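Project standup — Tuesday

K.O.: blocked on the structure for the chain from last sprint. Re-posting the sequence here as requested.
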Amino acid sequence: MNVLADHSLQQLNTLGFSSVAQYFIQIDSEADLLEAVAFAKAENLKIHVLSGGSNILIAPRIEGVVLFINIRGIELHNDALVTVNAGENWHDFVGWSIDQGLSGIESMALIPGKVGAAPVQNIGAYGTELCDVAVCVRAFDLQHERFVRFDNLACEFAYRDSLFKRTPGRYVITQVTLQLARESISVCRYKALSDALAQQGELSPSPKQVFETVIALRQQKLPDPAVLGNAGSFFKNPVVSQAHYETLHKQYPKIVAFPSGNGMKLAAGWLIDQAGWKGYQEGCVGVHQQQALVLTHTGGGEIDMLLQLAERIRESISKTYGVSLEIEPQRFPL
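H.V.: unblocked you, prediction finished:
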């Protein structure tokens, strides 16, 4: 185990904000994790777990020890059951599943981050969420200092939410097991995806065709964090009552929405775009010119600058539509 002091985290958060950890340890195995936990306990340091850094709003200075989860490895069991370690890159794992002839996560291609962060946010795209395929999650309970296993129900998955998100700082996810399929189970619930596939003449697309089409769609609208700092979707799509939706629809006939339980899920990007924020730039932070749901950082700024912009957007949407937007990335540390 290698303990680094005053270690820069600027390259480990996709927004590219400057940040320094008091102590930093890369975790390559569960044995490393146990050793790091013992170190933190002996030094009376608070533990902060960092995965891919793609869905966080990082503080300039982090006291305590940051554990960077880099546990690698994928195991394919019988019946398309797959166990993948938390340090694997999510998109690379999706590509691996396609190469293995598996189906179930192809529409979640190009989502940034690592596998270990996927259950926390219950990541999803184009109508598919992690909870649709998750069998169980293995994690280390920092409170009771033991490894525990959560089945799908115990994870308490919800829209961009889970038990792990609601109990920050308690669990360190080390492994996720997913039930995929040998036969295509692709369901194109989103019009943009189904239209793109139809243009290719694909009415019954293969997982690989869905995978490649999703990549093309995302690359058209979403900036590469390696080129332009961003955290992907910055706001959750809000869910409103049917009555509220009908009121909005009368005023805005082209409003984009999808059924969600007893209500309707509104496209936050559409709301932000129509409110005039798309392409807005204020110094080194702004709203992406092709996807209004993405806030960007060109470099050299501070996290508070982005948060102030986000709050102004939230106030604008609330005033215009009577809708409250919730920020999707989490503060780090919490």
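K.O.: great, moving the ticket to review. The mean pLDDT is 95. Residues 3 and 25 are 5 Å apart (CA to CA).
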